[in-house]
Amino acid sequence: MTAPGFDSSPQALQVLDTLQAWRTQGWLRALDLALARFLHELDAHTPPSLLLAAAWLAHLEGRGHSGLPVAGLAEVLPATLGWPQEASAALAEAAALLPADDAAAQQAWAGCSVLQINPPDATGSTPLVLQHSQLHLRRYWRYETQIAAQVLQRALPDTWLAPPEQAQARALLARLFPTAPGPAPQTATETTAADTALAEGVGKPAIEPDWQQVACALALRGRLCLVTGGPGTGKTYTAARLLVLMQALHAGPQPLRVALAAPTGKAAARLRQAMVAALQGLQLAGARAENGNAAQPDEAAAPLPLAAWAESMGPARTLHALLGTRPGTRRFVHDAAHPLPLDLLFVDEASMVHLEMMAALLQALPPGARLVLLGDRDQLASVEAGAVMGDLCAGAGAYTPATAQWVQALSGQVLQTEPGAQEGGLAQQTVVLRQSRRFAGSIGALALAVNRGDGSAALALLRQASRPHPEPPQAAGAAPALPVAPALALAMPVEPQAVARLAVQGRGGAALGYAAALQALRQRPEAPQAFEPWALGLLTQFDRCRVLCAVREGPWGVAGLNAGIEAALVQQGLLQRRGEWYEGRPVMVTRNEAALGVFNGDIGLVLAPPGGGALRAWFLEGHTLRSVAISRLADVDTAFAMTVHKSQGSEFAHVLLVLPPEDNPVLTRELVYTGITRAKEAFTLVAPEPARLATACGRLTRRLSGLGAMLGGRPVGARAALPAKPASPATDAGS
User: Fold this and answer.
1) What is the DSSP string of 419-479?
2) Is 603 exposed, middle or buried (0-12, 13-18, 19+ CB in 10 A)?
3) Residue 113 DSSP label
4) Spatial contact of 323 and 360, defined as CB atoms under 8 Å apart
5) In whole angstroms, what is the distance from residue 173 CA to residue 585 CA?
6) Which of 307, 377, 165, 359 lies closest to 250, judged by CA?
């Protein structure tokens, strides 16, 4: 192989032969090789280095990346590709063909008919695009371009709040956050030394702001607001108050048209439940205030129609259902020409939203609609290409004096400003909720240790929790105390069968295993009218435990452990398997089926309908049931065990996270953190080799992307780390 450039056809064929050899070795997919061949067929003069880069680009897209940086690629590729050691020599030799930087790439690839360099707009049709030192497949470049344009436009400061409305907003914020820290809100005419300092860019708060109130204030400033934070930091608590704020400030004759959505059905249902609960909490607080049990600002004496606003939200939907799928196409019913009929949209679990879906969602939003994205930027990125939430939140915390002045004028909260922060940039509409009110114990401490990359501290917490603890003394004659399972545990089995036994029986005194759920199958009621309460309880009990895996294949992966757990349950008489479909089989939908009302990630339980008949899969939809005939479910997996990726948007009382004994590139900090934060009451790390935990904590996921550069020049793959604060005692603000 020789230097890059317009080499002769034999050298291009030599590159294709090399790619074929890599495909034979299993290092590339057939699709990766097919793209390089397709480009060569389109233009026989395509430079060999571009054929090589295109194959790697396609391969990385399959791993969730959306671009290939041309500068320093030889250093980036080995860690990013994760190829075996025996591939290193071939990889290094091939990487030497690539241009050294963006200037060299533009020179070497100039005039190639399959590539457009620095396109001025989106009208081109070449398969490849080179922009911002990144090589892209055109489709993903178009998604990133659309997302960047939309979010930057929506993040611009809005002027819809005149001084009277600002005064009303101040009163409402004081009512919605009656115990918020910080100084009292100022009037529009007040000027203090703090104002002067903020205007000069040196403002620094004396105490920690109430970030939930800050988020509400910022959401009033633009048509986009990003709220990120870990479990229990109060994202939906904040969203509910923001909904009230927006509705109360709305001057129209009808309430705002509000929609709730999430990537999965379960996450969407949880969002609506949390929002309704938060609104009910506000209603109770308002009733207490009216009875004189709580202080209430003079400006906010009138009761708010919270019940009507809760009803106006309508049902929560998946993003696919919200946009409306068109069978057989990648297009949706709602797009720029047919926008969604709404004024305010809340999207939860935004870290799961991939590039294509985010681009479609933004295109379908009416220009005047407001979008609130809720999610945890530290969780795993989407399964498909992109790390949109991480890219959007990369500049969080860099506030300008103008932003700080706005927040202080509306809420009294004082923000620290950062010299050089970009006015109108996305960071001005982004808030990181730092304080968890749900994880006040050892699960929260473990999640924090993992999130800061401290594998030693994380392992120490697990080992300490797994040691025997002396039983507390009991009074004479008292009944024996029931055993209490610790919130954390470390299991180091030498065989996968031990994982299956642990999943079936639970651990300690928790009884949080599948046996507790499936014993209810024996208690099936005879009366048809009793079926629904029984099935609801069965599905709820089944969701109390889940085995989460880092890998799909192998004895320690989803496939092996599903088979092992199934066999253990059959052996104990809790299941009676008769073929692939049997009563009590948990199934997870792996493909969107809009016509059936089921979507990728939905989990159900196979049961016979009341009165007998063919088996059906029953799914929870909030507090109700829906069912689908099993004959119509072509794309499902057994779901005793599932990947961590598929668990996003769900919570379980007891989580068993299984790390394989062999190292694997998928073992990352984000994967372990996501697994831990799915647990509400108990977490068990199952690791035949506990050292894998430290390895994972030290391995950060880096999605190669051009979106960050389009949003404001952030280096590709970089992420600003912001540690969360330790948990505090639980309050209702942690929803």
Assistant:
1) TTPPTTSGGGGEEEE-B-SS--SHHHHHHHHHHTT-HHHHHHHHHHHHS--PPPP--TTPP
2) buried
3) T
4) yes
5) 48
6) 165
Note the helical H segments in 337-400: 355-364, 388-392
Please give the structure tokens belonging to residue 336: 């720029």
Residue 510: predicted pLDDT: 53
Report the sign of the C-alpha dihedral through residues 336, 340, 343, 344, in that order. negative
* CB atoms closer than 10 angstroms to residue 626: 16
- 653 pLDDT higher than 90: no
Higher pLDDT, 138 or 203: 138
**Full DSSP string of 482-518:** PP---SEEEE--SSHHHHHHHHHH-STTT--SHHHHH
Count of C-beta atoms within a 10 Å radius of residue 186: 18
Instruction: Please give the C-alpha separations between residue 400 and each of 200, 204, 205, 396, in angstroms, as whole numbers.
Output: 10, 12, 14, 12
Cα–Cα distance for residue pair 678/667, rounded to 1 Å: 17
What is the rounded average pLDDT of the residues 112-141?
A: 90
Confidence of residue 721 (pLDDT cuts 50, 70, 90): very low
**76 — phi, psi (to 5°)?**
-80, -40
The whole-angstrom separation of Cα 413 and Cα 434 is 15
Q: Which residues, other chains included, contact 535 with Cβ-Cβ below 8 Å and sequence gap of 6+?
A: 605, 607, 618, 625
Nearest to 242 by CA among 428, 370, 349: 370
Greatest mean pLDDT among 179-188, 209-218, 716-725 lies in 209-218
Residues listed for the chain: 735
Distance CA 53, CA 22 (A): 14
> What residues contact residue 147 under an 8 Å CB cut-off, 6+ apart?
355, 358, 359, 362, 388, 707, 710
C-alpha to C-alpha distance for 281 and 288, rounded to whole angstroms: 11
Strand partners for 477 = none
Q: Which residue has the higher pLDDT, 401 or 6?
A: 401
Determine the Cα–Cα distance for residues 528 and 532; give it in Å rounded to an integer.
8
Q: Where are the beta strands (DSSP E) in 601-710?
A: 603-607, 616-621, 624-629, 636-638, 641-643, 652-658, 679-686
Tokens standing for residue 196? 């002067």
Q: What pLDDT, in 10s, does the model give residues 482-515?
A: 344 578 888 888 888 888 888 888 876 555 788 8
State the average pLDDT over residues 288-305.
55
- Give the pLDDT confidence score for residue 412 in this predicted structure: 87
Residue 698 CA neighbour count, 13 Å, CB half: 11
Rounded Cα gap, residues 619 and 593, in angstroms? 14
Helix-helix angle 211-219:401-411, to 10 degrees: 100
| Mean pLDDT computed over 13-22 | 90
Instruction: Say how far apart CA 593 and CA 9 lie, in whole Å.
Output: 46
Does the pLDDT at position 293 exceed 70?
Answer: no
Q: Which of 37-46, 404-413, 525-534, 620-629 has the lowest mean pLDDT?
A: 620-629
Q: What is the pLDDT of residue 509?
A: 53
CB atoms within 10 A of CB 553: 11
Nearest to 338 by CA among 305, 360, 316: 360
- Tally Cβ neighbours within 10 Å of residue 420: 8
Give residue 280's pLDDT band: very low, low, confident or very high (50, 70, 90). confident
Mean pLDDT of 583-594: 83
pTM for the whole thing? Answer: 0.80
